[in-house]
Specification:
Elements (H helix, E strand, L loop, with lengths): L18 E6 L12 H8 L16 H20 L3 E3 L9 E3 L4 E3 L10 E4 L2 E4 L15 H9 L3 E4 L42 E4 L2 E5 L3 H14 L4 E5 L10 E5 L2 E5 H4 L8 H4 L2 E5 L18 H5 L3 E2 L4 E5 L3 H9 L3 E5 L4 H4 L7 E6 L9
Parallel strand pairs: 1-2, 6-7, 9-10, 12-13, 15-16
Antiparallel strand pairs: 1-17, 3-4, 5-6, 8-9, 11-12, 14-15
Length: 367
């Protein structure tokens, strides 16, 4: 595809080309109901701090209102830049749901990056790793149908059963140095399950974090699905989402959470280890929650959780002062933006969005 013009409604190959269309989440009726082992395991991997809450079903309405206010302001900012913004449908009520294998509750779509992966001219719905998000895709059905009618591919990865024995709850660090296994070497009871936020786009290459055996199956599925046009690089870097560790800003440039990445660079593909790094050590905090254990992710992880408008401009949380200064020194133009309670909701600016269309064609940045 090099050198060809692409006018598809869905068209994205990297994290940094000029942005033209994006999905921003909504936390209306985001809820803690339905929290079970399928959601808690990744926080138990962070010393169990989230799992020990006295009332896991309650969230202060103030946090929801302020978060929604900031997401709405993000829409206004990006539309002011000429970027088309789409939003999930409003979840009017939290409802109980039941499948043959589990019971849970519906929830709003606050972090669409977790579940939806746009690459090339295709929308891929990843196979859920969390029961309470099993039907979240319905909130974006009309948006995806519009893209489909405009010529985009629309793929739903194999839906997992989410039975107790179909999910791998082992601690990811215990498997850190294990080779990535093929499906024939994994238990037959396991589901294909992974989050879209395990993946970052580098043109022809997709770097995918693999923290569980479900993710290993997912990496094989994604490579087979995308075919020979793409190279999927499964790596063992963290429990699940990769964008609190690093995000590419331009060809050859990585913004990195140095505290999380120290000692882990060798896990990256060889080609990526040669890229220039902007390391961030920021340890300041802006938490205002009554319980310290609601600090589900480090402040520095959220400060590298950015979205690029192009190879120069970067939308970043306004409290990430050291990161903002580091970006300026590296020649970028940070656009500070308020997104409160990112730790509580487990999602920064990158998590809260899905880039759908950028001005670009496929390139090989690992050549």
């Amino acid at each position: 595809m090099n050198g060809q013009t692409n006018n598809q409604r869905v068209n994205v190959f990297t994290e940094w080309a000029p942005l033209r269309e994006i999905i921003i989440g909504s936390c209306v009726n985001f809820n803690m109901q339905g929290i079970d082992e399928t959601f808690r395991f990744m926080y138990e991997n962070r010393d169990g701090k989230f799992a020990d809450r006295d009332d896991p079903h309650k969230i202060d309405q103030r946090y929801l209102d302020e978060r929604q206010e900031d997401l709405d302001a993000m829409q206004a900012l990006l539309e002011g830049e000429g970027i088309v913004v789409r939003r999930p449908a409003r979840l009017d009520a939290i409802e109980a749901v039941k499948t043959p294998h589990f019971e849970s509750y519906t929830t709003g779509c606050d972090s669409p990056r977790d579940m939806y992966f746009c690459i090339g001219n295709e929308v891929i719905e990843s196979p859920p790793t969390n029961r309470k998000r099993y039907f979240e895709h319905l909130l974006l059905r009309n948006v995806f149908m519009e893209y489909f009618r405009a010529g985009a591919k629309w793929t739903v990865a194999p839906r997992p059963s989410m039975r107790e024995d179909s999910l791998d709850f082992s601690y990811w660090k215990e498997n850190l140095h294990d080779p990535i296994r093929q499906p024939e070497d994994l238990p037959e009871s396991l589901d294909i399950a992974f989050d879209a936020a395990n993946c970052l786009k580098f043109g022809r290459d997709v770097v995918m974090n693999v923290g569980t055996m479900n993710h290993e199956l997912g990496a094989t599925w994604l490579q087979r699905h995308l075919g020979d046009s793409y190279r999927v690089h499964p790596i063992r870097l963290c429990d699940t989402h990769i964008d609190g560790h690093l995000v590419p800003l331009a060809p050859g440039k990585l913004l990195v959470n140095e505290g999380a990445m120290h000692g882990f660079y060798q896990q990256l593909p060889d080609e990526l280890q040669r890229w220039d790094v902007i390391p961030i050590f920021d340890k300041s905090t802006d938490f205002d929650y009554p319980d310290d254990h609601l600090q589900m992710a480090t402040n520095v992880g959220m400060s590298v959780n950015v979205i690029s408008l192009d190879e120069r401009r970067v939308l970043i949380r306004d409290t990430a002062e050291l990161t903002i200064k580091a970006l300026e020194r590296a020649g970028f133009e940070p656009i500070p933006f308020r997104l409160r309670h990112s730790e509580l909701f487990g999602g920064g600016i990158h998590c809260s969005t899905v880039d759908v269309r950028r001005d670009e064609v496929m390139e090989d940045y690992f050549a």
